[in-house]
């Protein structure tokens, strides 16, 4: 660190200043010039110190500093060390500065609360759509298409600044998009076969997948309490699955595949977001567009326009015009909650993101049980509680 050090020395003359002493006494004239280092071992007593007037000085130490002639005779040497205030140690004065850590925690907390609320609304409308229109591949495609359209309009109208990307950015984004597409479709398939609460109970095991992937594929190690916390997570999810009244293997496997895919997405996203100037919101917008391009041909191959047309007409006949609003709502809220989640991921680690994602499921599970009147057995509820408790222990062990 470059510091500005100045030393004042005198032996036979008293150090004076026109600001502090009467004008009758002769003042030492200070010359100002920026010097890197001024040694304090100059010979002679007529040495004139050089100080910088560009920045305030922090006085670090004063030895034998006196304006008295008597004191001057005993110890002729006076040393005053000064450092540039903004390039050395903090000022030792009682000024209350904002706590950046507390502000950061509040910011992340707001992101998490908004993310969870938007996710609850999305899951409710998504399940309503899937109950009336059981075509998860098209439903997933519409969600990505709506989000992509929203962001293109925002960029065109300059509501949001368009990101500056290059080929390398899209190349790095591709594996993230593949993982995101798989996770998104798998979760939608799961919710089309089982209750929303069951899907999210199984998906609460995501921290276990995150630890296992990080340990065996990335070579990361964790404290023993972290591994121990995985036992209640896995055990609770297993108990909930065994006691689920509406158990469906397709729904169960869809939730498990979604867990694994989203862990890879989070890890790849965190790596891809480092070192580029694209914000979390724009990063997810680009991710949605690339995922849409990947998903569309597979959706057509798996279901096809003929099935979609027949299913759409049947849904309109059963639900009426409200069905269109349900589709629009689930697509819009899907985009919004994911954008906020990526704004959170921009601030935290993938593992912390998985923790927040799991805690979010509590509100989703409870709200879906209330709204859809999902029957819950005591052991099923116990399994969900154990899994959530394991997630809490995991978050504590990670601190």
TrEMBL record:
Pfam families: TPT. This is Sugar phosphate transporter domain-containing protein. It comes from the Eukaryota. Keywords: Chloroplast, Membrane, Plastid, Transit peptide, Transmembrane, Transmembrane helix, Transport. It is a multi-pass membrane protein. InterPro entries: EmrE-like, Sugar_P_trans_dom, Tpt_PEP_transl, TPT_transporter. The chain crosses the membrane at residues 108-125, 137-156, 224-243, 249-268, 280-299, 319-337. It is found in: Plastid, Chloroplast membrane. Residues 107-395 form the Sugar phosphate transporter domain.
